[in-house]
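Possible regression after last week's pipeline update?

I re-ran a chain I had predicted before the update to compare outputs. Posting the input and the new output here so someone can diff against the archived version. Not blocking, just want to make sure nothing changed silently.
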Amino acid sequence: MARTLDATDREILRLAVPAFLTLVAEPLFLLSDAAIVGHLGTPELAGQGIAAAVLQTTIGLCVFLAYGTTASVARRLGAGDTRGALAQGIDGIWLAVGIGLVGTLLGVVFASPLVQIFGAGDDASSHAVIYLRISMLGMIPMLVVLATTGVLRGMQDTRTPLVVAVVGNAINIVLNVVLVYPAGMGLAGSALGTVLAQLACAAALLAVVLAGARRTGASLRPDVPGVLAAGRAGIPLLVRTLTLRAALLVTTFAVVMSGSGGSSRELAANQIAFAVWAFLAYALDAIAIAAQAIVGRNLGAGDISATRQVTARMVRWGWWSGAACGLALAACSPLLGPLFTSDADVGHLLVPVLLVAALGQPIAGVVFVLDGVLIGAGDGRFLAWGGLIVLAVYVPVLFASALAFGGLVTVWACFVTVFMGARFVVLTRRARTDKWLVTGVG
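New output (post-update):
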């Protein structure tokens, strides 16, 4: 038994460590762009920031292309149908191309209205429109990267996406520097360089998937019923993602409407706190990605016992990883403020918020793992309804607390205890049942 558990740990690490490094590498595309564009001037950097917000939101909503594909491919792999697994993955890639084509057209046409929503000045807005229109040309490659990454994760390969992400970031930096400065293209050069780097990443990942498909004889042509099925399966995961993003949005709004009036310093501290929370989420979400791949494979093989065993083990991993992240965050909380801002008042506001966030890390670790387990099990409909229920509970409590007590710490205490706590209750109750343990490739 001990050997089985040790083997399980090694498999979790084999999948989770490269997944974590890939998750950390992905935001470097925009960070490197910002670092290079920042030397052009403040309006250019502001415009790049606005466009990046639109892009991140759009791509974030399409993350179901990776998650849904991982689960479906892993199931077929577990059932011993490697050809069918890759065929399912090809359908997911064609879905990504279709969504990307529509997204590109809409993004280019409506770039200006989207930018105007932010209400920035004329200079920043004009730069944002330029950057966004060019960047939208990379929509198809970005979504293909999501889908192909999902295919490879489903095939139990998280190393290839890591290698591609690292090389892609290096290409992105080189192209940005060359196109922005020696080529004299300015902000447009930064956007074009990133599009070309994303195209290279998509081509590399696609080549790996297509090579596997050819070896097994899987068709590369779009199977319309399969593509439509992938789209239908992705809708519940899209709803789940919308509920998560809505929770973050209303939390920020609660800071603005709190009794203290949501000062600019509070908003700055809130933004930093969310950035730190998001970084820690990458570490914890890596285990969730391993859960998607392993649970999908085990259920595809019809092995409920192994699914239960690996779920219990990953929940423990999530709990202890969250506890470690929480202790590290608490210890570093007085030091993080100066890294993000020179405003001592913002740093002073930030410390108690980070301590509250630190207390919530063990719960977050379990929540992220169980989220991945249920995604791997194809339990998207439950996750969608569960997300809506949690949001319905969270929003009134959040606003009532913000109005009654005010302050940034109150809002974050509500986020950690009510939102994350409600997700913990919903997901752990579901995990104790057998309703999600559906075997086969269905």
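Follow-up from reviewer: compared with the archived run. The chain has two domains: 25-222, 234-442. Marking as no regression found.
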